[in-house]
């Protein structure tokens, strides 16, 4: 029993050795045409998964068994910690989350090994080899700088406890799903690097990678949405997006990934933008790496940066330099060899996809600049600065507005050459209808008429334009409605739903912070909130002040909310738990502040409390929209075309939309 | 010039114009939304500049909440406290709910501007857990604390590690 953590360490070291094999032999074998070396790739991938999963299981066991002789466990667990959070505490801080990253990487690698039978062996060998290289970097980072199995001798009797912010159901799901997305971009990345090494990009390999990109992007979308939802109910501020550096870190690969999805489609079907697609694949994965490290290394000051350890900084910098610099160098040397794709006219779907890509990439660059600018300024001794949310908000809206405007045209426009007036004529009535709906919203909005009008018009435009495409396909006889198209329609519909949420909550939300005595009532946004006092409640590892707030709508009781203020037994941290009544058209949200009586008054808790009440119309639509986008990614990935074995060598030109 | 070249030239020109416009916009947006972090002694000593001490510029005030400085008029949402960096103190007022981790003798970053001799905060952020002091605050206050031998959570965090 006591030897177990060392077993995990041994498994990690063995995994590193296997990763070395998995990188070296297949890559060399593919170059020299040595079949025996190439054949090492798949078994090595499976063995690596087994070893990393073993190490992960060992760490989980240490948490469940409360082995406080392991430093990481002692720092992030506590004997009072409920069982379910002992499992999730594994990825509650830096070391464990890096181990989870390595595990997911090994999982994706094994999945590639398993589902790549239709590809030539040298290609698989190169792809798995590149994934092995990434794995080497991560496992060495774990073993040499962030060992989760390091002992704490002598062992302590009691652990320090998991950060209370993370003792929450949202936190169970957020990191693994987000990481599935981050790490999933390793597949298009490995493919891109393999294509660069090989010097040519074959349409069928590209077709094979597309579902992987879709799935990774879908997971990333889910992960970000869960994170946003968690911040909304857990941080007690009622916001769903803060342009916090850590959110930006996950948003940048999302934007690059969204651009990649679209450019991959163009490259696969028309052979256009080969180099650009490769570049985006490199960018999406590099930004995922940057995101992982920015968040967990403590470079950024934020909710997520638990440990600020500059010793890891150098390793991270070198690793990033090798991955990004190496792949870009390879790109500079090899990309000119790619054949140019089929030519296209100014008015064509290629042009629209190019516009989509430029806008998404600009947005990504803008977020990157705003996120790194404070670090840069600090390094250059320009002072300690922070970039405020209005910077991101203003530029993001500016960049996304043309994207939303162009979106419905994309699916209705033909590849290669299109008469510009044709899609315009198809969509003009729907554009008019969307504008009318916006105008109606302007006059009926109780507050924020401009934003409401913009939200309704933009959402209606995207929704109606997408439906127009569906109608064209359904009416056109004999033409199939493929899973790929269905995915696209779902994702675009998700954007319409998201726009309603994001813009209407911005325009229509109302908030008040006030002192409330028991029995006092406050009105807000058509609801009445009656404060009925605070009593004490006991949880497994915390004591809480539990408020009772009766919410009334039109004088009728709607719901009794219980916002809490929890004091955790270990460390004495205080956490807010908001009381939320979720509804399809509005959330009612109450957070408890502090008692306002004199500090020496024994009956302080029975007196007035600071209370924050919010009414958030349509806020659920934000996450519903994100869920639809993710679903779109998953559905598109199931398209049968992606799984077809292609006999001919280059099936580029034959594919029409 | 042949038509292909002409089209390329136009595209390059268009790209240049777009890039210039984008750069200008980004620079403008950055300039307007950047907030500097200063400690009380930098504000009072004039090192932060005229715009900051006169109340024109919004900035972030970083430091520790001074001991026994927190007060709230009974039953009111208006809170007042002093922020110190070991060398100087600045009175702060804030109306609203303070973050969970706000406490005396703990690090705090408040965003707002000067009004008279008082810092009027629009937003107050406290550190996120027991061992964590915002790095930028720790950096700025490090020297002052060594000089005065003031014990900060930054030291404690370092000890714990």
Summary keywords:
heterodimer; A: 657 residues; alpha+beta; 4 domains; six-stranded antiparallel beta sheet; 11 strands; flat; disordered C terminus; B: 161 residues; OB fold (Dihydrolipoamide Acetyltransferase, E2P); five-stranded mixed beta barrel; 39% helix
Strand content of chain A: 5-15%
What structural class do the secondary elements of chain A suggest? alpha+beta
- Poorly predicted segments of chain A: 301-307, 646-657
User: How much helicity do the residues of chain A have?
Assistant: 55-70%
- Oligomeric state of this protein: heterodimer
Query: Could you tell me which chain pair has the largest interface and how many residues each side has?
Result: A-B, 49 and 33 residues
Counted beta strands of chain A: 11
Descriptive report:
The complex is a heterodimer of chains A (657) and B (161). Chain A is of the alpha+beta class. Chain A has helices at residues 4-32, 35-38, 41-64, 71-76, 83-88, 94-114, 121-145, 169-184, 186-198, 203-234, 245-270, 274-296, 311-334, 349-379, 389-406, 409-412, 421-444, 449-475, 483-508, 620-637, 640-643; strands at residues 385-387, 510-516, 521-524, 527-538, 542-553, 556-561, 564-568, 574-577, 579-581, 586-595, 609-617. In chain A, the strands form two sheets. In chain A, strands 3, 4, 5, 6, 7 and 8 form a six-stranded antiparallel β-sheet that branches. A four-stranded antiparallel β-sheet of chain A has the order 2-11-10-9. In chain A, strand 9 (579-581) and strand 10 form a beta hairpin. In chain A, helix 10 packs antiparallel against helix 11 and helix 11 (245-270) packs antiparallel against helix 14. Chain A starts with a helix and ends in a 14-residue tail after the last helix. Residues 301-307 and 646-657 of chain A have low confidence and may be disordered. With 161 residues, chain B is α+β, with helices and mostly antiparallel strands. Chain B folds into two domains: 1-34; 37-160, Nucleic acid-binding proteins (OB fold (Dihydrolipoamide Acetyltransferase, E2P)), CATH 2.40.50.140. Helices cover 39% and strands 29% of the residues of chain B. Chain B contains five helices and seven strands, in the order αβααββββββαα. In chain B, strands 2-4-5-7-6 form a five-stranded mixed β-barrel. Chain B is elongated, with a radius of gyration of 22 Å. Chain B starts with a helix and ends with a helix. The A-B interface holds A 163, 165, 236, 298, 301-303, 305-306, 308, 362, 366, 369-370, 373, 378, 383-391, 394-395, 398, 513-515, 517, 565, 571-576, 591, 593-594, 596-598, 607-608, 610, 612 and B 22, 25-26, 29-30, 32-37, 60, 62, 72, 74-77, 95-98, 100-101, 128-130, 132, 134-136, 139-140.
């Amino acid at each position: 029993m006591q030897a177990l953590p060392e077993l995990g360490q041994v498994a990690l070291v063995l995994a590193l050795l296997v990763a070395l094999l998995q990188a070296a032999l297949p890559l060399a074998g593919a170059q020299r045409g040595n079949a025996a070396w190439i054949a090492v790739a798949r078994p090595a991938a499976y063995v690596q998964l087994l070893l990393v999963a073993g190490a992960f299981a060992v760490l989980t066991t240490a948490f469940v068994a409360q082995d406080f002789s392991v430093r990481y466990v002692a720092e992030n667990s506590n004997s009072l910690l409920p069982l379910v959070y002992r499992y999730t505490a594994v990825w509650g801080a830096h070391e464990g989350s890096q181990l989870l990253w390595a595990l997911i990487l090994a999982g994706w690698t094994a999945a590639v090994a398993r589902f790549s039978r239709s590809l030539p062996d040298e290609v698989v060998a190169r792809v798995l080899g590149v994934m092995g290289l990434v794995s080497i970097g991560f496992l060495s980072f774990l073993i040499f700088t962030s060992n989760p199995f390091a002992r704490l001798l002598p062992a302590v009797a009691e652990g320090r406890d998991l950060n209370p912010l993370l003792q929450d159901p949202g936190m169970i799901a957020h990191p693994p799903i987000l990481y599935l997305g981050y790490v999933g971009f390793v597949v298009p990345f490995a493919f891109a690097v393999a294509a660069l090494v090989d010097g040519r990009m074959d349409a069928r390999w590209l077709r094979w990678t597309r579902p992987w990109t879709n799935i990774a992007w879908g997971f990333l979308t889910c992960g970000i949405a869960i994170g946003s939802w968690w911040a909304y109910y857990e941080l007690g501020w009622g916001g769903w997006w803060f342009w916090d550096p850590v959110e930006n870190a996950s948003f940048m690969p999302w934007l690059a990934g969204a651009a990649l999805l679209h450019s991959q489609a163009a490259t696969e079907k028309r052979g256009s933008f080969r180099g650009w697609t490769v570049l985006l694949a490199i960018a999406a994965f590099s930004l995922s790496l940057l995101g992982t490290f920015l968040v967990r290394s403590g470079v950024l000051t934020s909710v997520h940066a638990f440990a600020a350890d500059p010793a890891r900084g150098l390793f991270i910098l070198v690793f990033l330099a090798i991955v990004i610099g190496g792949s870009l160098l390879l790109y500079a040397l090899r990309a000119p060899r790619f054949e140019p794709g089929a030519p296209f006219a100014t008015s064509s779907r290629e042009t629209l996809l190019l516009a989509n890509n430029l806008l998404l990439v600009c947005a990504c660059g803008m977020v990157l600049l705003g996120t790194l600018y404070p670090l840069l300024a600090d390094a250059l001794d320009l002072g300690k600065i922070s970039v405020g949310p209005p910077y991101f908000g203003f530029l993001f809206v500016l960049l996304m507005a043309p994207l939303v405007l162009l979106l419905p045209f994309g699916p209705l426009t033909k590849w290669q050459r299109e008469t510009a007036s044709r899609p315009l004529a198809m969509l003009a009535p729907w554009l008019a209808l969307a504008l009318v709906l916006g105008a109606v919203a302007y006059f009926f909005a109780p507050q924020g008429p401009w934003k409401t009008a913009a939200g309704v018009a933009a959402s209606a435009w995207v929704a109606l334009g997408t439906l127009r495409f569906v109608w064209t396909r359904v009416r056109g006889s004999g033409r199939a409605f493929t899973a790929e198209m269905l995915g696209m329609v779902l994702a675009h519909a998700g954007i319409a739903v998201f726009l309603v949420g994001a813009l209407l909550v911005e325009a229509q939300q109302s908030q008040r912070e006030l002192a409330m005595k028991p029995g006092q009532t406050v009105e807000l946004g058509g609801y009445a909130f009656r404060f009925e006092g605070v009593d004490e409640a006991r949880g497994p590892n915390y004591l809480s002040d539990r408020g009772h707030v009766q919410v009334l709508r039109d004088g009728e009781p709607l719901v009794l909310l219980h916002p809490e203020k929890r004091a955790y037994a270990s460390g004495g941290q205080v956490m807010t738990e908001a009381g939320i009544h979720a509804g399809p058209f509005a959330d009612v949200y109450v957070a408890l502040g502090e008692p306002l009586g004199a500090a020496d008054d024994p009956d302080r808790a029975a007196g007035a409390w600071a209370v924050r009440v919010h009414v958030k119309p349509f806020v659920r639509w934000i996450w519903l929209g994100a869920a639809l986008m993710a679903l779109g990614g998953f559905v598109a990935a199931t398209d049968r075309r992606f799984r077809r074995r292609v006999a001919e060598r280059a099936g580029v030109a034959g594919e029409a939309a | 010039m042949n038509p292909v070249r002409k089209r390329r030239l136009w595209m390059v020109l268009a790209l240049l114009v777009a890039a210039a416009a984008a750069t200008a916009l980004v620079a403008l947006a950055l300039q307007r939304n950047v907030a500097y972090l200063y400690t009380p002694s930098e504000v009072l000593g004039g090192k932060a500049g005229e715009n900051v001490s006169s109340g024109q510029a919004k900035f972030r005030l970083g430091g520790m909440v001074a001991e026994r400085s927190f007060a709230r008029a009974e039953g009111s949402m208006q809170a007042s406290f002093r922020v110190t960096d070991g060398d100087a103190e600045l009175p702060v007022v804030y109306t609203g709910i303070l973050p969970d981790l706000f406490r005396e003798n703990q690090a705090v970053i408040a965003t707002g501007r000067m009004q008279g001799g008082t810092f009027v905060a629009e937003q107050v952020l406290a550190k996120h857990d027991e061992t964590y002091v915002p790095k930028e605050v720790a950096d700025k206050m490090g020297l002052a604390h060594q000089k005065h031998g003031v014990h900060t959570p930054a030291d404690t965090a370092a000890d714990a590690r």
